[in-house]
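Handoff note, outgoing to incoming analyst
You'll be picking up this chain. Sequence as last confirmed:
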Amino acid sequence: MICRRKFQFLAKIASFHCKLQCFASVASPIKHPNDINPNKNFPPKVFSNQEQLKTSFLTPQIVLTTLQSRPSDLDALSFFLWCARQPHYFHDRPTIHHMVNVVSKLTQRCGTVKGILGELGSVGCVTKAQTFLLLMRIYWRGAMYDMVLEAFEEMCRYGYVPDTYTRNIVMDVLFKIGNVDAALWFFKETKSPNFLSFSIAICNLCRLNEVDNVKIVLRCMLMKGLYMNPETYALVLNCFCKFGRLEEATQLLCMMMVLGAPVSVNVWSILIDGYCKSGQIEIAAYLLEKMVEIGRSPNIVTCTSLIKGFLECQMPSRAFEMLRTLELKGCFPDLVLCNVLIDCLSKMGWYEDAFEVFSSLRERKLMPDVYTYSSLVTTISLSRQFVLLPLLTSGLAIEPDLVVCNSLLSYFSKAGYPEGAVEFYNDMIERGFQPDKYSFAGVLRALCRSGRIHEAVNVYHGILRSYEGVDAHIHTIIVNGLIKSGNFPRAVKIFKKAVAEKFPLDAVSYNVAIDGLIRGGQKEEAYAMFHQMRATNLAPNQRTYNLILSSFCKDRNVNAVTHVLREMIDTDIKIDYRACKCWLMDMIPVSIHWVITGIV
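Most recent structure output, in case you need it:
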């Protein structure tokens, strides 16, 4: 809907542009045709207490309470528009937010902006320029971007000339729906852009990572004699640093200092972090010195970037010196810095120091998160001290959430310690966690890898009995575990049962089962399963064809090999020529020559 509206809007804007040669400046009100009387009021029957409200002092609280008590959405919108016409009264954000639901329901009922205007007219509400502007503001607030564009089109049909504020709304909407070119064109065609125009353009361009366009708009803004606020400076600086444009980021910092703009600690931290990530740690340290010289004290965020940079550049002495300075000033490491220390120390091979940082979390009253556990499991894996894995969460005053627990289950198995994964899963259940499909996958994989295949089968059947929505990955894990343990008949039996009961299976599941049948010597059944896979509208992939092709080559079945190769070519499946050549070497010499020259 938004995409279709976008193209209709651009086509209509081009036609309106010819008619609307001059746009109103930011200081000018929206113009309206002369035949409409702006002083025309609502009929007294619409609001019986209207005259009383005129003479009383309107406040946002009174207006919001009245809107909430209106008997219908149309009545509420009429009253909202009437209040906006009163001298020296402006609707606040809570009121606009309340009207989003009101106008949304009216839009669903009427279908179009024109339909809403017709309803308003039926109760005596005259359509004015302000009507369109307020509708656009409400739609804008409610992220109903297609309706914003429709209201703007309808406004132009009535002959109203949009002012800068109205154009700012449309420009922001075009950015929000991702049409950067149209938004920039709209921005350039605004005759009197104001600070908000530039701010909207720059903020959206930074969000969309349009670095070059950010520079163009920023240069235009400065030429107009307008300057960004501190928040926008920080946003642009972060955008430059994100893409490694450190020279331009530094120039922007210098410009801020020359213009007298306040350079916050956050701005310094962004630039220092950019140089740290690029490996230019000496420049980052120099910026820190300059920051201190002008009276800005670095915070924990600034120091975290530098400590990480020093450790990654193999300069631990300077990292620990900065850490000691922080603690002397009463600024102690937070969880982010502790995670950085655990990760960097592990990569440097300083495993004992990494464990010491983790052990200090409790006395620092810090709660480990998924990054803490991930870093520590990596540390244990690198140090080969798997005996420490079950101790990760024991004795902690805090509880990890289910996402953290599932990550730990996965890391236990990947680290070569499946017994720890099984113990941890049991501990999860005792603590009252409700396992999900990722938990089941983790414990099944751990049981299979630890050789406890019978327990894995029992757990698998228990999962099928107790839980709904078991995905293909669970079936694949148990079938693969049985095949690797040499129990081919049971693996095939479980897979066939899954097929018969119409459990969700994917190409990987079929590949594992076909491989098991081939290894178990049941090649005809493997080929039958290959056809069954296609009958279920599941397309075989390269791995599937390779398994079947390898089997036929070992049986020296020339006709079958030829058929499979032709089918791969017809279905655009990439042929692994190197593997294919090796398989064909098992066949008789004449057939090799015929197949390779005629097909491959």
